[in-house]
Amino acid sequence: MDIISFICSPGVLCQVLVGLSRTVILFIVASGLSLILGVLRIPNIAHGSLYMIGAFLAFSVSKAFGGGITGYWMAILLAPLIVAALSFIAERAIFCRLYEREHIMLFLLTFAFALIFGDLVKLVWGAEYRTVSMPRFFQGSIPIFGLPFPIYNFFLLFMGPLVAIMLWVIVNKTKMGKISRAAAVDREMVGAVGINVSMVFATVFVIGCYLAGLGGALVAPIVNVTLGMDHTLIIEAFLIVIMGGLGNIWGALLGALIFGVTQSLGILIWPQFGIIFPYAAVIVVLSFRPTGLLRSTW
């Protein structure tokens, strides 16, 4: 009964909601990584760097439009699009020539891009941390279970399901999504029927990178935007993708839920070692399901 009372206590329930709001960011970034990994077979180490660039672009765009609610919405709109444009240039210039190479070569290539993007961010924005002002509309909190819960976190809880539904529609209900799923299984056969597989891959790559930029733009108002913010994120995103099943979007959602909630509860239960809990959850899941919770596309 004591355990049940603890689980149902307002503090724990509110902390779970905080964990779910962090889950949204993890899912958005991890779903883009999973999409690229599932269709293109590219372990994109630079994905975290695109997340960081999205956050810095959100700062610049918001500032350019004077901050406030207008600056925020323009940042959410434009920052991911700029990241997508940057990724399209990189894909057409380099990646499209290397899809048939070994995974280790693609891994090293994306790692090189991560280093280049890090230096690019330092060159453009400097080494100092930046902050994106929270629009007044999202400031403050509302009581949940008798405890204050930030309004912006509620907005993130809304964005998560919205992105998941949009991804499901793109992957399952559009012609491009069906072709990309077929190309993930047998790209030679898809090309043999006259479909431009190269442009299909480019579209998938851009969508995945757009999601990385979107995650960075969404998180910018609640964190310090700084160099190195991509390091932890890319590790967590890869663990989520592996735990959920390589290339499985719904697996990425499930993995992000487990990772985000266990981290949030770990901080509540054992603050000094709260960061251990999500990694312990990954170990437990992979011990019983080595190929991930849901079916892998590999």
Report the uncertain regions: none
Measure the end-to-end span. 44 Å
Report the average pLDDT across residues. Answer: 87
SS class? mainly alpha
**Strand order, largest beta sheet:** 1-2
Shape: globular
Helical fraction equals: over 70%
How many helix segments? 12
Q: Could you tell me the strand content as a percent range?
A: under 5%
Counting DSSP E segments of at least 2 residues, the number of strands comes to 2
Largest sheet: 2 strands, antiparallel
Based on CA atoms alone, the radius of gyration comes out at: 19 Å
Chain-wise SSE layout:
Blueprint: H1 2-7, H2 10-40, H3 47-64, H4 68-93, H5 103-125, E1 141-144, E2 147-150, H6 151-173, H7 175-185, H8 187-192, H9 197-219, H10 229-244, H11 249-269, H12 276-288
Antiparallel strand pairs: 1-2
Question: Could you walk me through the main structural features you see in this protein, from its secondary elements to its overall organization?
Answer:
The protein is mainly alpha-helical. It has a domain at 24-228. Helix content is 73%, strand content 3%. The chain has helices at residues 2-7, 10-40, 47-64, 68-93, 103-125, 151-173, 175-185, 187-192, 197-219, 229-244, 249-269, 276-288, and strands spanning 141-144, 147-150. The chain has a two-stranded antiparallel ribbon with strand order 1-2. β1 (141-144) and β2 form a beta hairpin. α2 crosses α10 and α10 packs parallel to α12. It starts with a helix and ends in a 10-residue tail after the last helix. The model has no long low-confidence stretch (mean pLDDT 87).
